[in-house]
Amino acid sequence: MESPTAQKTRKGLTRIWHAAGYSLAGLRAGWHETAFRQEAIAAMVLVPLAAWIARSWVEFALLAGSVVLLMVVELLNTGIEAAIDRIGPEWHLLSKRSKDMGSAAVLLTIVITATIWILALVQRLNP
Question: Which among 13, 52, 76, 125 would be 20 to 30 A from 6, CA to CA?
Answer without folding.
Answer: 76
